[in-house]
Amino acid sequence: MRFRLTYEGILYASQNTSDKKKHKHCIRKSFHPQLKNMWENHPLLSVLKVAGTLEENFDMMSTPSDFFARLAPEKNQLRPLNRVISEYSCFWRDDYKFVPLVCKCFRLQCSFDILLLTGTRPGPPTGDLDNRVKTLVDALRMPALQELKGIENPARDEKPFFCLLEDDALITSFKVETDTLWAAAPAPQDDPQYVKSVIGVTLQPSLGTAFNLGFA
After folding, report:
1. Could you state, in order of their start, the residue ranges of all structural domains in the chain?
2. Are strands 108-118 and 49-50 parallel, antiparallel or unpaired?
3. Who's near 165: CB < 8 A, 6+ residues apart?
4. Residue pair 54/83 in contact by the 8 Å Cβ criterion
5. Residue 50: exposure state from Cβ atoms within 10 A (0-12, 13-18, ≥19)
6. pLDDT tens string 107-159
7. Dist. CA 24–CA 12, nearest whole Å
């Protein structure tokens, strides 16, 4: 399964600890509506439904079992998978209930192909590329425990909050290409740290199961 996510805005390489968390979450908030739209309208994601809680479905999702046959007797009890994920307390961070797409229990992993467009201006370098990419990748995952301390509560349309990754350990590889952004950063953000990025995401099962065959 392949798709693209985009981010346009300021992308810093390093800040103090408090601001860095807020900066990552600001970028994370830009991915939320894109992923929410995918869950609601993608031909595969929009039809994924399960019966019961996520914990009750772990075995059939993570092992090669007859997923659809097991669901058949309970068709009238099926609920959208994204709603079931949001009820799983291990994905809660303070007031946020996260819905990651790439989860360990789904036996899914992913790779990235990142195009990063940056402005070319005279003066000192705009920051270390590796650390700027790390900031971007960190914003694609769920925050760690305590990482959202001091962050504002979720907005009305961020309940639940959609993100790409449960953990960045599920990333198998990534490639980064940089090029020149000829358009000026929008005022008043005429900032050399301004970027436009297109992130190509490829999902693949780490172990094929009846549940995740559609992601192959």
Report:
1. 2-215
2. unpaired
3. 100, 101, 102, 110, 140, 141, 142, 171
4. no
5. buried
6. 899 999 999 998 755 444 445 788 889 999 999 999 988 888 888 899 999 99
7. 9
